[in-house]
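Batch 3, record 17
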Amino acid sequence: MSSPFSAFVPDTPPTGAEPAARAGHFSTAHGTVLTPAFMPVGTQGTVKGVTPAQLEAIGPQVILGNTYHLGLRPGDELIRDLGGLHAFMGWHGPILTDSGGFQVFSLAGLRRITEEGVTFQSPFDGSSHFLSPERSMEIQRNLGSDIVMALDECPPGRLERDKLEVSMARTTRWLRRCRAFPLAGHQGLFAINQGGVHLDLRRQHLEEILALDREQPFQGFAVGGLSVGEAKDEMNELLAAFVRQLPADRPRYLMGVGTPEDLLFGIEHGVDLFDCVLPTREARHGTLLTSRGRVKIKNARHKASPEPLDPDCNCYTCRTFTRAYLHHLFRTGEMLASTLNSIHNLSYTVGLTRDARQAILACQFPDFARRTRENWNTEEP
Amino acid sequence: MSSPFSAFVPDTPPTGAEPAARAGHFSTAHGTVLTPAFMPVGTQGTVKGVTPAQLEAIGPQVILGNTYHLGLRPGDELIRDLGGLHAFMGWHGPILTDSGGFQVFSLAGLRRITEEGVTFQSPFDGSSHFLSPERSMEIQRNLGSDIVMALDECPPGRLERDKLEVSMARTTRWLRRCRAFPLAGHQGLFAINQGGVHLDLRRQHLEEILALDREQPFQGFAVGGLSVGEAKDEMNELLAAFVRQLPADRPRYLMGVGTPEDLLFGIEHGVDLFDCVLPTREARHGTLLTSRGRVKIKNARHKASPEPLDPDCNCYTCRTFTRAYLHHLFRTGEMLASTLNSIHNLSYTVGLTRDARQAILACQFPDFARRTRENWNTEEP
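Prediction for the assembled complex:
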């Protein structure tokens, strides 16, 4: 695969005090990605509630599109014919597309899994569809994303070890098939590591991936199958031991994570990329992530507050409006509530990774992490 | 009443060929208003679906806030304490507030009308409220709008003449009480003319208003009680005969109107200001107003269209996205559909009045009106 992808280049000074947290960058055809970075999720070709112009002002390094949703509606060939997902949705920075596997395994109703792939029913019109490694690659090629995720089998959380091993082996075989599929020249392929919360299984699966990688390198490595129902402690213990074992010269992506607390923990242990619907979903439900902790904007205490949502935030919402106004919009069910709340939550989350990067570059990450955690008040600020 | 309001200053060259269509301007504390102008409606302190920044890019000369809604939620005293409606909603251009009367007469459930005012029940929590001329003025003073509308009794469309006359007389008495109320120094008061579609009643009511105006001038005159169920022909016949009889040295405001066709007709007959929820409401329902006619974006014919919504429109939506993308957003129920559609419909409606102004200034309004109507295709463009 020819690719404009650069390897991961560490920006961290060599004398850094942190053994794991790292800052770096890698290049794609649609721009350089500075890490650590949080990727907002644009499930159906839009990051819910914000325009691409608002998203640009928020400033994520890369955003995520959903292969499953876009393949069903409006269809990947239609998007290809309209110039690809970048042109279709008006976002001209880097895009990562997932493989569609997570949605097929978690959302679709009837489904049948074979070695060849998964047959599933569209929840929209009941029509039957088939997702295989090749079909996932084809959709992602049609979408024209910069980062393509391999199709993995997504086991449910807390699956028994023996079943997990069977699933992992299939994921490896599927990875080989994904890599054999000809992507577009500008696209890079990320491999996904599975193995639940079992460090030995994670290592075993990583060895299989690295065997393939030695034949022909992947452009990045993802940790999948976490944040799917296991205890937070189990996830964190696994991450603390495992992330640093991923190759240092490629980006490391922790899929589907997460909360501000999760991001900080992940960065602390060497994760470069994150994605999660949490910031926009919580925003629509009126839960706002701030430097002082979580604000539930519908609470009566904000009704007459002339204060900005987060005095440490420079986003459009915090620069322009009072808590009283945000409270009013949420209480009256105005659409603008979701938009302004989403702008803030995305700004906060993207900003957290940006600030973490600056702290790492300044060799002050442990101090930054400590102060950030101290400022997160458990009482509503 | 001391006021920074200027009189209406005609910008139309004296050799214009049009007897009625006029361009002009008047000044308020929050800026000059160039007319003709369409005022987007911000019912609950937000023009539905767009941020103030997006609204600024659309460029309306003045926007409208609702006394009834804001007085109930979050309450006018709260908005006053937070610096007034401009600061509360982040819009720093001119604001007109309605009197609350239209909503009390059309929305509220139980209500009792006396000479003193109207007692009504809040649809939100069933609590009892009282709206009188003095209370309407007090709310609008607390909101701090630039243009304050007098409280009128809003008779239902097609009310019998004798009942209409009783209602008009009360509206005149209420107007006198509104004028006696001390507004803030920067606020101007508009009187509202009633009389249904009866030209003689309209003239009779206007004489009563002008008698008050001679004692102390109003800052503008509004035509109320139209577009409330009467036949379009009846409304237009009345407007064609009546609007030019309103004083030429004050702005003329046709309340609650309307469609692009209505705007063009109103401008043709000397109206300066319009307001209507139609552009944003239709936008949310997927009906888009364009220079070629109405587009129903959910229709299958737009599914794969690489064309902009309106090739003659320079709004963010038309500059950035294809019809196929707008179709996709609407079909998948994404919030962004409402936002992008609202940006376009508001841009189109505001732009129509701006273009009409330019045409009037260039003494080419009849030609502009003819071409605009010819371009409105009855078949979906």
